[in-house]
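Supplementary notes for students who missed Thursday's class. We covered one full example, reproduced here. Read the sequence, then the structure, then the short commentary at the end.
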Amino acid sequence: MDVLDVARWQFGITTVYHFLMVPLTIGLGILVAVMHTMWVRTDKPEWLRMTRFWGRVYLINFVLGVATGLVQEFQFGLAWSEYSRFVGDVFGSLLALEALLAFFLESTFLGLWIFGWGRIPKKVHLATLWAAVIGSIVSAFFIIAANSWMQHPVGVVTDDATGRPLQVDFWAVLTNNTALAAFSHAIVAALMVAGALLVGVGLWHLRKRKLAEQPRDVDHQVWRRSVRLGGWVSLAAFLLVALTGDWQGKLMYQQQPLKMSSAEALCETEAPASFSIFAWGKLGNNECDDVHSITVPYILSYLAHGDFSTAVPGVNELQEEYAAVYGETYPDDPSFGDKAGEPIDYTPVLAVTYWSFRLMIGMGAVSAGVAAYALWATRKGRVPTSRIGVYGSLLAVAAPFVANATGWIFTEMGRQPFVVYPNPDVPVDEQVYFFTAQAVSPGISAAEVWTSLISLGLVYGALAVVELWLLTRFVRRGITTGDGAPVPGSTPEGGPDDDVPGGRDDDVLSFAY
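Structure (token representation):
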């Protein structure tokens, strides 16, 4: 592989790895804040124990998310310096706001929440958690706004001297319809991740307590409420994911039609267009004429345009249109490296876009199905004991993680060969776009990128082992007396006096409380 391929693999691997932590941090943060709010309002011990238990899970994931997220911005200057120069006038303000406003808001108030138990008034303490959670959401918005500008560049003009975009309308960047659709989709998808975790872990503990013939005490209520909360959140989030995904898909058909036609392996223009259920053939080789599908008539026209008759352009037609507008070959320029003068394939890898799109939808549906099962199995106080149902729900915790990851893979891989996609809403001579082949640092070698990729892979592998060990150990242990149980000397609010000898000496993250 050449430098471009290795650099793309590196950024793709580190980004997907980091993004496994992001939706759980955002979604679980919101739910923990809701739990804490319910405890402050009702003073019921089960809400406090839920807050303390799920709050620690949230903290473990948050720490690993921060550690892996820092690498992303370093890569902009190391392997992708030309890309950084090109987008710098737009990204500079967004990343500065993300770091100075959102990240510091998040980290500062999260610290106050961690160490504020029993030390500050209950309502003020609750406000610190909400401030941290809002910081996470705002941070996500700025990052998504930056990514969405790459998908649909707005609010800029081209500098005649450098050929780079200059930001002239920051508000247009923030209110980019692509950003608003992607942000809303990402937030509700994050809630699906958190809901699935509550359902899987809660059912496992309920079954474990039932088989051990433990009483239906406060701890029983903790797990039952966790399952019910997670189930309803998952179902509501799935509905919202479908609505926001439909919005996002219709925008993509306007802005990046080749991405969406590739997601359907739609080779030739159809009117009305059919939705593909299953495709086979030479998807991996982008030999579109050798691809065959099982389809449902009319549905793709509706997904693309909101009616059942409008034509949807096929991959072959769009490939020709793009070649006519942006060139059949890369310019014979040193900035394109080994790609200079070579033919441009504007069609994304069909196998990646097609199957990642279906995995995203399919795994989301699995998560919603498990949530429905959990709500049914725990209705009217019931406790499920089915080994298949409970352990299946625990395994299904991974489903929304896969849906989130494949959604991002689809979004990013479908944009190729552009790293900044041209905006079709403006005349061609005013469009801002940048080929991925131009974006790699000119002085970097494949060996150097391989070295960093292997190094990061080893470090990330170790971090994954640490996080999984911490989460597994903590989840298996369940609720300890330090999570709000009435112990001698404890304060009514469950403050620092909970730390009595023998109560929680070996709790994971006991230092935090």
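Commentary. Residues 41 and 322 are 58 Å apart (CA to CA). The chain is about 65% helix and 5% strand. If anything here is unclear, bring it to office hours.
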